[in-house]
Amino acid sequence: MTGSDLGALRRLAEDGNEEAADRLAELAAERGDLGELNDLVDAGNELAADRLAELAAQRGDVKELNRLVDEGNEVAADRLAELAAQRGDLEQLNRLVDEGNELAAERLSQLIRDTK
Questions:
Q1: Which of 9, 67, 95, 96 is the most interior residue, by most CB within 10 Å?
Q2: Do residues 71 and 43 share a domain?
């Protein structure tokens, strides 16, 4: 995709075209362009938030995942639950359980069973 194609997509997204915003999110995720993903998240694009959560999980970026969880992103909550379980972080899992995350509850139960 050329720079002019990206520019056209950005203009469409800025004008409220969700398909263009979603395509930009996918392309930004493929490039690992965290800046563009954050811009799209700030504009309210849920797919961008999901892709940003996936990239943060791949990098083990707990701070970014927590930020996205605080903004209500379920994908981030699930990825954070997985990371917390891998690290044995019961405090993080408990926090996620308190916020209603089912995956965190499952992982917490598994950790408790495994330690008995």
A1: 96
A2: no
pLDDT single digits (tens) 79-100? 999 999 999 999 999 999 999 9
Same domain? 95 vs 49: no
Tally of residues, the chain? 116
Question: How many Å apart are CA 99 and CA 44, to the nearest integer?
Answer: 22
29 and 45 inside one domain = yes
The single residue listed with the structure tokens 């950790």 is 111
- Interatomic CA distance for residues 49 and 37, integer angstroms: 7
Phi-psi region at 61: left, alpha or beta (left = phi > 0; alpha = psi -120 to 50): beta
Q: Tell me, what's the pLDDT at 2?
A: 66
101 and 54 in one domain?
Answer: no
